[in-house]
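User: Teach me something about this protein's shape.
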Amino acid sequence: MVNLQLAGCFLLILLNVATVSSRDVPMKHRHHGGGAHTDPERITKMLVFGDSAADNGNNLPEDMRLRRATRDWYYPYGISDNLHDNKPTGRYSNGLVQSDFLAMILSHEESPAPYMVKGNEGLGDSGMNFAVGDSGVFEVELQYPMISAQIAQLQDMVTNSLADEQELRESVALVAYTQAVDYAPIAWGAMIDDASKDDDLQQLADFVANVTDEIVDCVGKLKEMGVPKVLVNLLPPIGCRPLMTIGGGYSQCMELGNNLTDAHNKALKEKLGDDTNIMLLDLNTVFNDLINPKEGSTLSKFKYTLQPCCEATVPVLGFCGSYENDEQKFQLCRDRDDYFYWDIENPTHAAWRAVMRILQGDIMAFLGISTLNHF
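Assistant: First, the predicted structure itself:
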């Protein structure tokens, strides 16, 4: 029997344990004060790493037939993307994603080109996007490149003279660890097992420490390569994703998932929060403010905050965009801007726009940008 209350309490305790545990683990990069520095006004390029929050077309498996792993290349993905003729482009959204709106803050039209398409041509005027949906910091079943492997792709470009140190000094990096795929086995295991054992508690605390250590190491590698400024996503409230709220009829967030988010973010703040060349993007607070706005809030209001716009007719087993014998097996909402979530994991175009509008001022201050670009 699923013991959600016990698992929830377990993860609340984890919030206090994870930080202590991480202090006991030797850190390769606790404060990354080294690396090249540059005038913020000269930052013109973006280097994008991460998962579906930032991927703009790097998910290109050899077998492109429609299935869950390739859904981002099929209708109805991209249906609201006026910039690309309302067609799917490999983004996990009905339109644009986080990396696109960050690019607009830097006065670009959209995210830099995907590495899998333009990597052999060198960094473009706006940089390069290496992010791949469903990636994490450890190897996953479908063998998407880990974030460290994505950074290795940039290093290969430098080695092969497709990018140089000057271009890196003019870049800001985004590390968009947002899907939290590495935590999936742990989270589900905590739901169905007895999570009160001391061994289980320490195992999960160690795992949070390991995941955040890997993110810290990735940031360290970028700074050692000469990238002067790095934006790092804090986890959004994963317990509010439709994948987690479906069991309750999309009526409330799952405390278990959100406690895991808090544990991850607390550890990451301890490890990176004191570095003035790193900005932690607090997606957790911004998502929560938009999903559960306080009374009198002037933030964008979404009518449907926990239910996806695009939903499989057989939830979880199916996927947004699925067909069976040419028969559509998904339901699509009418007013897409009323929905915060596009599918069971990812925000809509309207949601990402609202999120990045809230973060825009702080990002501009961090990067020394004085021109406000509206989107």
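Now, about its shape. The two ends are 47 Å apart (CA to CA). The longest helix spans residues 198-224. If you'd like, I can walk through any region in more detail.
User: That's plenty for now, thanks!
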